[in-house]
Each structure stands twice: as C-alpha cells, then as structure tokens.
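Design review, sub-item: ligand-bound model
Attendees: FS, YL, KQ
YL presented the inputs for the phosphoenolpyruvate complex:
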Amino acid sequence: MLVVLKPESQVMNIAEQLIDSKATIFRAGVWKPRTRPGSFEGVGEKALPWLQRVKKETGLITAIEIANTDHIKLALDYDVDILWIGARTTVNPFAVQDIADELQNTDKIIWVKNPVNPDLELWIGAVERLIQAGIKNIGAIHRGFSSYNSSHYRNPPKWQIPIDFRRKMPDIPMICDPSHICGNRDTLENVAQTALDLQYDGIMLEVHNTPDDAWSDAKQQITPSVFKELIYRLVVRQKSIEGEEFLSKLSLLRAEIDTLDMKIIDILYDRMQIVKDIGKVKKEQNVAVFQKERFNDILLKLIEYGNKMGLSRELINTIMKAIHIESIATQEKIINEK
Ligand code: PEP
Ligand code: MN
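KQ shared the predicted structure:
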C-alpha cells in the first residue's frame, strides 16, 4: 500500500531516516528553476519553517537554492545555514552580482554550482564576485555540464574542469553532485567514488521516500536506505602526499576512459538507428543490402584517416568490419520482415 504523506511530514520522515547515515546537511529545493513551464516549481516560503524543524529535531543543518534577492531575504529570515547558487544562475553574471551584493559580508556558507555550460571562467567569476563581496565561507559544487543528446549521463562530468577549478582556487572545498551528473540511479555510486578518489570534500545526493513518485527528477532519486548503503560502500582512500597525486591522476584517467567507452557505445547505438532507417528505405526501393563498393570506399578512407592519427590499419579494419557485419545483419532482418 502506498502511504502518501503530507509535504511537511514527508520532509520530516526523510530527515529522520537520514540521522544515522553519515549525512550532515539536509539539502532541499524550496524554489526550483524548471526548464519547462508547468513543472513543479517548489513549495516556496511555506517550506522554510519545515527546514527549521528538520534542524531542531534531527541536528542536520540545512541548505537551499537561492536565485534572487527575495529568496535570500527569506532564507536569512528563516536562518537557513547554507545557500547555493544553482547551475542556471551561475551562468548569469548580473544575477550573481545581485546575489553577491545582497549577501555582502555574510558568514553563511555559500555554494556555487558550476554553470550548465562547460565554462571554467564563468564558474570562477561567480566565486570571485562572492569573494569581492566579503564572503568567506564559499564552496563549489560539481554537477556536470549539459550536453545535447547525451544518453548515458544527464550532465556529463567533464572531470578536468573541476580539477582545473581546484588548481586555481585550492582553498574552496569541492562537493560532487552525482544526482544531477547521472540523472539515473545506476551510476551514482561510480561517480561518487570517482569524486572521492579525486579528493573531493563532500557528496550531494537527492533522496526521496518514494523516488518514483518524486515531482522532480524522479529517475535520479534514491530512498534513504539505498542512500545509506551507497554511502557506507564508498571508500575514502588514505591521503598520502606521495600517493595522492598518483591516485588522483589514475582516477581521472580511468574516469575519462569510462566516459569515452560509454560514448563509443552511445555512438554505436546512434549509428545503428540510422542503419535501420537505411534498411527501411532499401526495403521500400527493393535495393540490395550489401553494397561492396561503398563499404570498401569507406574503409579505405577511414584507414587513411586513422593512420594520420597513429591508429593502425588493423585496428580500424577490425572495428569497421565488425560494425559492418552487424549492420548488414540488422538490415537483412528489416528487409526480410513480412
Ligand atoms: C538542484 O540542485 O536540484 C538543481 C536544480 O540543480 P542544478 O542547479 O545543478 O540543475
Ligand atoms: Mn534536482
């Protein structure tokens, strides 16, 4: 039986389940910037007393997203502990400057999510505006970068950007947000572990009592118990001055390889969709599936192209032939379908 809780009880219920979970901060979107109109935009001011209750009854400190001066005034009135600037706000220097002016000299913790586009300078610029406004407690959140048609990650992590950020601003703690990077539940742990291997200072994960019913980002939500299991499985590696650089380098390179391998699969998938469309056209026109000259032509061009980049004839030959065999089989199937 599904028990539907009233919103305040739902918030308390989730917070209580997180008490013994290693979580120290309760993040909640009170105002939510939505890509399309008509989506759930958050409960608004009404939810701020609920967060005060969370803090009082569970000891978890609270964090919300703010995007304008009205949000900030209310967040300060209700004594929210951490205010974060969302990815869609970080892209706008006017908005960030207004926020910095309103927060002038605050001792609250302010987090800056990376901008949605992969622009290191924009991220650093937002942090600089806060520093210039006399704000001392600043953190950065890595939530990945938007990309058109990315089927594996919702927002591919592009690890090199946060690494470059830390090189330029080594005193700003870095938190990873695997929920918004992955957009699904399957790869959260992998991304969280990579972040820890790269010596991040914290992990931000979205949790919901019944994830499939969530009004926003349902696919990436996990239950408090799955959250606990995941967090306890994560390994915090020993920091040794010597080992640290090696481990970070190795983790970064492995993460890049993993991302590229998934991209290869994504590209093969996209290619196969087009192969299927061609199969349908061939069927309509009653044309033979295998066109030898075309394949030989393509193969020669690709071998030459690969050679220029130092990739062997054998590698290109093996991969392209395997792809071609699969493509022919797929088209044969389409053409022979009744
Ligand atoms: C969020 O944290 O729920 C959110 C909207 O994230 P982002 O700003 O990273 O898209
Ligand atoms: Mn979200």
